[in-house]
C-alpha cells in the first residue's frame, strides 16, 4: 500500500485539490479521492463541483456510472471508489465519496472533522455506502 500518512492530516476545503495552506493539504471529498487514487498510480477525473451540491454531484456520478468508466464491484478492492448517500435532504443522492484502501477501511474527507479512516462494515458508514466502483477509463472526455 502506498504511503497515505500525510493525507490523513489534511484539512477540509470546498473545491480543495491538495493546495497547501498553513502546512496542510486542503481537500474536499473528491479532491481526497483524486489524491488517494494518485498514490495508487491511478489518475481519475476531476469534476470541480461544490461538495454541498448533493443533487448536482449525484447527476455527475450517475453519468459516470453509466459511462462504463467505473466498473461496479461485488466487494471492495484497493483502491476503489466508495459511493455513499449521506445527505438528509436528498437521501437518494450519491453525494459523498471515499476510497477503499484495504483491510476493511476507507479514507474520506468530512467538512467538519477532516480526513477520516473508517471501517466500511461498521456504523454509521455501512448504512450510507451504496456501492464500490473500480476505475476503468481514461481521464479524457
UniProtKB/TrEMBL annotation:
Superkingdom of origin: Bacteria
Residues annotated as domain NlpC/P60: 1-136
Pfam families with a match to the protein in the record: NLPC_P60
PROSITE patterns: NLPC_P60
UniProt keyword Repeat, yes or no: no
Keywords: Hydrolase, Protease, Thiol protease
Stated name of the protein: NlpC/P60 family protein
Amino acid at each position: 500500500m502506498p504511503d497515505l500518512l500525510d493525507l490523513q492530516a489534511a484539512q477540509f476545503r470546498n473545491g480543495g485539490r491538495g493546495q497547501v495552506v498553513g502546512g496542510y493539504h486542503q481537500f474536499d471529498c473528491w479532491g481526497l479521492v483524486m489524491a488517494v487514487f494518485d498514490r495508487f498510480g491511478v489518475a481519475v477525473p476531476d469534476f470541480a463541483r461544490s461538495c454541498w451540491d448533493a443533487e448536482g454531484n449525484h447527476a455527475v456520478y450517475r453519468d459516470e456510472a453509466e459511462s462504463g468508466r467505473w466498473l461496479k464491484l461485488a466487494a471492495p478492492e484497493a483502491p476503489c471508489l466508495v459511493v455513499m448517500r449521506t445527505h438528509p435532504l436528498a437521501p437518494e443522492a450519491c453525494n459523498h465519496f471515499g476510497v477503499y484502501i484495504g483491510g476493511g477501511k476507507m479514507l474520506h474527507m468530512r467538512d467538519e472533522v477532516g480526513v477520516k479512516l473508517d471501517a466500511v462494515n461498521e456504523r454509521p458508514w455501512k448504512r450510507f455506502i451504496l456501492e464500490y466502483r473500480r476505475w476503468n477509463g481514461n481521464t479524457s472526455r
